[in-house]
Amino acid sequence: MNRRLTLAASVAGAVLVALDGTVLTVAQPSLQRALHASYTQVQWTSTAYLVAVASLLVFAGRLGDRYGQRRLFALGMLGFGATSAGIGLAPGIGWVIGLRVAQGVCGALLQPATLGMLRTAFPPDRLAMPLAVRTSAIGLAAAAGPLVGGALVSGLGWRSVFFLGVLPALGFGLAALAGGERTTAAAPGDEVRFRPSASLDLPGALLLAVTLACFVHTLVAPPGSGAATAAGFGGAALAGAAFLRHERRTASPLLPPEVIGSPAVGAALGLLVAVSASLFGTLFVETYVLQRRLGLDPFHSALRSLPLAVLMVLSAPLCPALLRRVGARWTAGAATAALALGVLVLSRATGTLALCCAFALLGAGFGTVMVAATHVVVRHADVAAAGVAGGLQQTALNVGPVIGVAAGTALMDAGPGTALLALAAVAACAVPAARALPGRGVASITHTPDERVRAGVPARR
Question: Has the keyword Transmembrane helix been applied to this entry (predicted)?
Fold first, then answer.
């Protein structure tokens, strides 16, 4: 599979996952009525997927590094398509929830591979544009999802939204499977070192999965007693502490030190968590503001938020030029500040122009940070650890929104304005983290381990 087909497959996988989340939200009311399900059961169709995917992303990336990104992508896409078809045929809500868990597992397999394949196929200095194309496609999917989902649910019923991605998933999955696995990366001599004999660090994978599952479930599950919430966070803390201790002592850790030990990678992941938390928390709160306080119907609310998707799509392709001119440090820092400003404007905005400008700032900021930070994470990883790097990036983008929506929900009692100010502060406080990212010209002289090997410079291990 050549570079263009690799990029097409990566975009298809990312779009499929993005569409799935948006169309499900539109289909849930119809699904609830048709299957005579309770509100809690319907909420579990989202919760079950989130818990499964968030807990397995990093381990799935490790599997891709060991067995090949394309194989994991093919397995994930074929499984995603099959489970989507199964949900469309499900006779009851229990089947839907169970299949959503299986779909989450398949989503965890394919998401890190969409980035790992790009890292394998493109030289580090040419990664920014493929990542920008991928980000723009995600923005388009997020904008089109509610419209497509609404049209399908209105015309053909809720089951039709799950059949939407079946054929593309099966088509790209089979093409990736038939294409085989590349054994060389994009640049001459940049060998992809799959290590079938290397340890998968199953204990570490289990501890990390328990940590993330407890954390995400506690945040997204229906409100319970204080004791249940404390037990959930306590379980996440204990499992997390055990995971960190295990990683320090094991000879083959799940998270390679050259990836997780990089200040630039840590800062980029922190930025992704912060901006996604701020953005999705803001969207949650602002939906109530537009529809309840301002009295807009869903269609006119969507029109006012449309600049977000438009600017996200437009800003992503401009990011590579900014990275070349000013570096990731200034690009990500300014974009994070723009997102914080957009949330701040929304906390006071009521007029159409102010709302559209605020949403435009959100889209431009998020689209730019997503490309810049992802570029840092994936580029700084050795090719043999590209899957783990992709898993970490995807984990950040799954955990951040959960934190943001939970924070927005908790702060709504204090008023939407207060909630939005707090969410703006989350993004603003993340701006200094951009100082750890590479500056102008650093990308051309700071080489990844596999590049140092090609240049005859020993890579530090």
Answer: yes
Among the CATH numbers 1.20.120.340, 3.30.1360.70, 1.20.1250.20, 3.40.50.300, which is that of 258-451? 1.20.1250.20
Q: Which residue has the tokens 């479930």?
A: 217
Confidence (pLDDT) at 218: 85
Instruction: Give the whole-angstrom CA distance, residue 344 versus residue 339.
Output: 9
Residues whose CB falls within 8 Å of the CB of residue 9, separated by 6 or more in sequence, listed in order: 1, 73, 114, 117, 172, 175, 176
Q: What is the pLDDT of residues 69-99, one digit of tens each?
A: 889 999 999 999 999 999 999 998 999 999 9
Report d(CA 48, CA 55) in Å as an integer.
11
Backbone angles phi, psi at 211, to 5 degrees: -60, -50
Amino acid at 183: T
Q: Do the Cβ atoms of 389 and 197 come closer than 8 Å?
A: no
> What does the DSSP 8-state code read for residue 458?
P
Question: How far apart (Å, rounded) are the C-alpha atoms in residues 430 and 273?
Answer: 9
Q: What are 158-184's pLDDT values in tens digits?
A: 888 889 889 999 999 998 888 765 544
- What stretch(es) of the chain map to CATH 1.20.1250.20? 1-179, 258-451
Instruction: State how far the Cα of 40 lies from the Cα of 30, in Å rounded to an integer.
Output: 15
237: three-class secondary structure by DSSP? helix
Q: List the one residue out of 276, 390, 289 whose CA is nearest residue 345.
A: 289
Of residues 378, 404, 401, the one with CA closest to residue 391: 378
**What separation in angstroms does the CA of 67 have from each of 180, 199, 204, 250?**
11, 12, 18, 21
Longest CA–CA separation in the chain, Å = 66
Residue 448 has pLDDT above 50, yes or no: no
Contact 104/46 with Cβ under 8 angstroms?
no
Query: What would the pLDDT profile of 349-370 be if each residue is shown by its tens digit?
Result: 888 899 999 999 999 999 999 9
| Torsion angle in degrees (nearest 10) through CA of 396, 142, 73, 43 | 70
